[in-house]
Every structure is written in structure tokens, then in C-alpha cells.
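User: Predict the structure for this protein chain, please.
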Amino acid sequence: MARLTVQGKREAKVCQAIRDALDAKGLDIPLVADIHFTPTIAPMVADAWEKIRVNPGNYADGFKKFEDKVYNSREEYDKDIPGIKEVFVPLVQKCLDKDRAMRIGTNHGSLSARVMSYWGDSPRGMVESAVEYANICREEGFNNFLFSMKASNPVVMVQAYRLLAAEMYKLGWDYPLHLGVTEAGEGEDGRMKSAIGIGTLLADGLGDTVRVSLTEDPEFEMVPCNVLVNICTELHDEKLFKDIPEWKETHRDFENFEKRRGELPGQLADDETFDVRGLMHRDGSVFSTVTMQDLQNPEQLYVNLGAKMVVGMPFKDIATSDSIYLPEVPATSNTDARKTIKRLQDVAVGVMADIDQLAANPMPNTVAIVTLDSIAANDGALPALPEGAIRYAIKCTGLEPASHYAAALKTIDPKLAMMIIEVPVTSSRVHASRRVFQILHDIGENGASLPVVHSLAFEDTPTKDHLILRSGAEAGALMVDGMGDGVMIHTNNPKFDVDLGELRQTSFSLLQGCRMRSTKTDFVSCPSCGRTLFDLQEVTEQIKQKTGHLPGVAIAIMGCIVNGPGEMADADFGYVGGAPGKVDLYVGKEVVKRAIPNAEACDALVDLIKEYGRWVDKEEEEDSAMAPPKEEAVAA
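Assistant: Here is the predicted structure, written as C-alpha cells:
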């Protein structure tokens, strides 16, 4: 199947010729027309092509406007339906006559002014908009249609599809769902956003077709799309559920998103000078696994952990790992490795290790990891902390009896910092982890207040794309529901060449894609189509080079007006093709500068960001070898 943009009458007139030319060459691939703003041409295109995509946000309502019109009741709102029918029914009748298919494709960024006024810029508004068009189809006896509910925000996208599925369940409908995160962007961020949104829904058993939409050449969409579908197909393998005890989920509310917030570690009287608050971050934590080999090259380790280097010394930065996990604790005689670790502790990077490792090689100001099973075997009591350790972390698999959790959390030790979930690769990470959150919810306050970090241990990820997509699909399916306070990604595949820095970057991309912690500029950029008025890939790269260092700032880069103003609602600033060779700039959803020549538009965007007080100068990276670091004593 191939989708093509049909902008207006000129393009519509050649649709039949395109179909005939393909048929003459024996190419029977179905053609899909993407229609916006021009309902009069849709029946003409349906004469030639097999499927029509309509956007309820601009099919009958025309160009987006944001004037306020107050509807005092649903009855008043529904009075506009006859006008929509007048415009839409001719296409429905043509599809019936020609046995064509249709996609009712709602976009969060292009809801009509009418829907925005009554339902707001919301997932519920997306559902109501789609169902309204579906009802018209059904009234005409036409049922050969499917839905899509796309958004650039994966959390909004997941909520919209789930609400639509629930609405169809109530209505007794069973129409197919086409999944996609629109304007996902490019590179790792585009793949991560797509994996979070699409992967979450596929893990729920929702979705019939998929598109990974990237600001890249179209052929580059196929590999992540196929990999993601294969990953999520494997998630439903019955073997992954056989070791997970039976349980019933009662607390997760798909209609009302609410972040579960654990109570992060705080200072206690006997913590002395170490700042325990650095162990975790309030918006989402990133932990990194550091091996003995990593400790042999301190400066490279600090860089891989995202530390800012000043005269050879590490300092915690906006995207530095919050804590590190040591699979092996250096011996007390290994002063070089311990000095490397202490320099991290001095800038409030937490250090964790298994309790047996710390008992054998004590280390000051560390977190001792204790397994849930060992606590249960000790009648629910935590063991004594090894010398130097100041906090506990409980590690669970999600497979333990619920009674083990209840026993361990019957009373909360003030030195219990967090719980770490590491589900075996032989079990469903999503299902087992959801079970843990249900158990914590059932326990009450002691369970609800405990921070939870997802440890994602991968053994069979052959490429970086696989790692990104699997992390997004499995951890994203939990975090979009507010389940989790942090993530630790590590791989045990010696054939997979990925360094600690890449794993850290993927972890931060996951948190940002789940709308938790922002550590870099968030770009919302669409894929190219026939309406695009500038080179999207080239312009996106130019804008990223100039503005990619602005955490907390969201910039939308849109090739045309179709989703422009609406997606501006999810962005702080917008760069939108307004006419050939011209760009319009937005602040929020309001256009503030029009018809800027392409050659000047990128600099004009920078000036606009400065004008609104959101600009900071990019810091120059300092040469870490400027001067040798001073020696310091290291506690054994």
C-alpha cells in the first residue's frame, strides 16, 4: 500500500492516470489519498484510488481557526452535525459505490475549532471527533473504514487510542486501528517516541496496522517499523507468562492519567556530609551500570556518565547519571578505582552494589541492594547494613509471591531508598512489572510511597535500533501510565557494541519521550509529504544544531499548515511552512511572524527564542586535560 498527498484539484485530476499507468505495468499496489481541507476533490479521487484518508479536524471545517465559540450544551454542539454531513456524505456514498476503504484519521494537532471549543485540546476530543464521522458512515451503511488517533506526544496518543477502544467496546464496534506517533522527529528520539506510543498499545493488544513516522527518507521508516512489530509480537508469547503468578489489575485507570510518585530519599541525621538527595531525580532517574573495565579509564567514564569536566574533575550536569550500579565492588586495595568512584560521590552521584559485594569490600556512602526473596527468608526483616553503606534498595523480579512484598513492606525502614524491578528475560517485563505496582497499591501507603526503578537487562539486542525500540516498548508501556521513577538500561550481549554513554543517552531519551524529565530540546517534526514547503531534513538539522542545547524548550518544525497551529499547542515555538519559500513562526499556537524567507528563518527563530527569554548560550566543552587533578585521600 502506498499513500500519496492529494493537495487540490490539479493533483486530483491526475489520480486516474497514475492508477492506469500502474495497472499497465502490472503493479496492483493499492493507493491511498491523503485529503485535507479540500472535501470537494475527495469523491473524484475515490473514483481512481482504493482508499481515502480524511481528517475530521479539517475536512468539513476548513482551515483551523481558534476563535472562541461557546457551546452551552451537547444539544447545541450537535446542531452542527447536519452541516458536516452535507460535506462528508458525498464521499461516503462514493466509497460505497466503488467499494473503497477509508481511514478516519484524527490528529491531536488538527482538531477543529468546534471540537476545541467544546472538548478542549484533549484525547477525549479526538475520540469524539472520530466517532462523529464514524456515525455518519454507519448511517449511510458504510462500514469499510478504520481509525487512527495520532499525536506527537506519545502519552496523549496512547490515551486517545485507549479511549477510542473503550468507546468502541461500549458501542459494540470492532473497527481496525492504525497506530502511529505523528511528527515523531528523527534519529533516536523519533524511534523512541514511536516505540513508546506504538509499543504500549501493541503490548495492550491494540492495533492492526502501524507506521513509524520519521523526518528521514521514507525507506528508513521500514526497518524500525518491522523491528517494533516483531518485538511487540514476541511480547504476547505465552511462554513469557507461565512463571508470573495469576493476579488481577484494579488500580490502573486508562481514562485519567495520574503519575505515581514515590517519596524520594531524603537526608537523615546520621548521613553526615553525603547528600543522599542526589541518588534520584524528582522528574525521573537514570542509573548506569559501571564495570571494573569502565573504572580503568576515569575520564572516559566521567564523559560517558554525562558529567561536565572542569580541569579533569567531574561535575554533575543536567544529563548526568543520577546513580551508578557496581556489579563488582573494587577491593579496598584498589585505590585508583575507589578514587574514581569517590570523585563521583563528591558531586552527589549515588553508588549502589549488591549487599554481598559491599560486605566483602566495604565502601563509604553506598546503597546496599537486597533481594526480596532474601528478606522474605529473614521473616521480612532487612539484614544489617555493611560497613559504610547508608541505604537499602530492594530488588525484585515481579515473580515472587505477593506475601513476600507484604512482609518486606509491613514496616518501612527510614533507610529504605527504593525498589528495583528486574524481570528475567524469560518473562513478560510489562505484565510482571504491572503486577508489582498492583501489589504495592494493595499494600497501601508503605507500597505507594516507595520509589521504583526499572532495570532493563537485555541479552539479545543485536543493534542500537533494537535496544531503543525494545526499551521504549517495554519500559514505555509502564511509564506512560505513571509506573516508575527511573530506569537503568544494561546489556549482557558481548557481540553488541554499545558503550555506557549510549545507554545513558537512550535512558534519558526514554524519560523525555514519556514526558517525565527534559534534558534537551524536544523537537516535533513531521515527515515530508507533497505539501511540504521546504527541505524538512535539512532544515531540521540546521535548527537542531543551533537550538539543541535548550532543555525544557519544545520546538515544532512543520512543513505545511496541516498540523502546524495545532501541534504548536504542544510546543513552545513553531517553524511552519506558510508559502513556497516562506516560513511562519509561532509562539504556542499563535503565529507571531509571517512570510520570513527560508534563508533567514532559522536565525529568526533563534531571535524569537531570545525575545521570549528561553535562550541560553551553549557551553563550550572544556579540555579535561588542561591541568592534572589534585590528589586526595580515599577512604577505604
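The first strand starts at residue 2 and ends at 5.
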